[in-house]
Amino acid sequence: xxEFEEILEVELDEEExxxxxxxxxxxxxxxxxxxxxxxxxxxxxxxxxxxxxxIIREILADDRILIGLAGKMIQDLSLGFDDDPTxxx
Length: 89
Fold this sequence. Notes:
Layout: H1 2-7, H2 21-40, H3 45-60, H4 64-79
């Protein structure tokens, strides 16, 4: 991950993220959608997978609760429970 940080320098304007949580969440969502669009444009499936995993690892960091929630969500998705309105995880 460090080698990518050296190659890519992303500068975030702090003023862009000032404000209430709902405004911040909207901005985060917009950035996430842009990121996904960029991932979809990668030609190499291996690069898409590797980049996706790096992003997930970066988001989860050492947050054990978030790791548990993500694991449960992945389990639900893999078992097909994501479309079942009667299922509660």
